[in-house]
UniProtKB/TrEMBL annotation:
Membrane among keywords: yes
InterPro entries: GPCR_Rhodpsn_7TM, MRGPCRFAMILY
Domain G-protein coupled receptors family 1 profile: 1-154
Taxonomic path: Eukaryota, Metazoa, Chordata, Craniata, Vertebrata
Alphabetical list of PROSITE patterns matching this protein: G_PROTEIN_RECEP_F1_2
Gene Ontology MF annotations: G protein-coupled receptor activity
Gene3D superfamilies named among the record's database cross-references: Rhodopsin 7-helix transmembrane proteins (1.20.1070.10)
Subcellular location: Membrane
Spans through the membrane: 27-49, 61-89, 101-125, 137-157
Membrane topology: Multi-pass membrane protein
Protein name per the record: Proto-oncogene Mas
Organism, scientific name: Opisthocomus hoazin
Keywords attached to this entry: G-protein coupled receptor, Membrane, Receptor, Transducer, Transmembrane, Transmembrane helix
Length: 179
């Protein structure tokens, strides 16, 4: 999902007229649904092949495919489009307003790279036969930290620039996504 959000946000900044006039209205919902479906399919296959009907070869092949799809396709695409968006916004002579959504996306991508990618790399290399000096639990802990950081990012970005002491969580989320 981070990959598709990065691509869509980048296209909306680079080609705003095309996005407003030619982009199908429900494209985001359709792509998100397809991605959730693909994720459900791959996880269901993993559960069946690795737990219910254990087949070492099929399980191994599926996990390598998932790791390669994540690490060799989605992550580089996300990085490319996020970096393009970042450079376009920051180096623009028009001084485009960055907004809260841009900040949320950039922070989410940054923390994804720091905390979630190591687990993907570790799993992929483990199934390719390479062993690391530290245990896989470190990768799982980093991945959990990434998941717990997202609501904190939304809250902090949503509450940024508001100097009032009393501030609701709902208002923070609303402000973070108002763009």
């Amino acid at each position: 999902l981070l990959t598709t959000i990065s691509i869509e946000r980048c296209l909306s900044v680079l080609c705003p007229i095309w996005c407003r006039s030619h982009r199908p209205k429900h494209l985001s919902a359709i792509i998100s649904g397809l991605l959730w479906g693909l994720s459900l399919l791959l996880n269901t296959l993993g559960y069946i092949l690795c737990t219910i009907r254990p087949s070492a070869r099929s399980c191994h092949l599926l996990l390598i495919t998932i790791g390669a799809l994540d690490f060799l396709f989605c992550t580089p695409l996300m990085l490319l489009f996020s970096l393009t968006l970042f450079l376009r916004v920051k180096c623009s002579s028009q001084h485009l307003r960055t907004g809260r959504l841009f900040t949320v996306i950039m922070l989410t991508v940054l923390f994804f790279l720091i905390f979630a990618v190591p687990l993907s790399v570790l799993i992929l290399f483990d199934f390719l036969g390479y062993k690391f000096l530290y245990s896989p639990e470190i990768g799982f802990v980093l991945s959990c930290v990434n998941s717990t950081l997202n609501p904190v990012i939304y809250f902090l970005v949503g509450s940024y620039r508001d100097r009032r002491i009393k501030f609701t969580l709902r208002l923070a989320f609303q402000r973070a996504f108002e763009d």
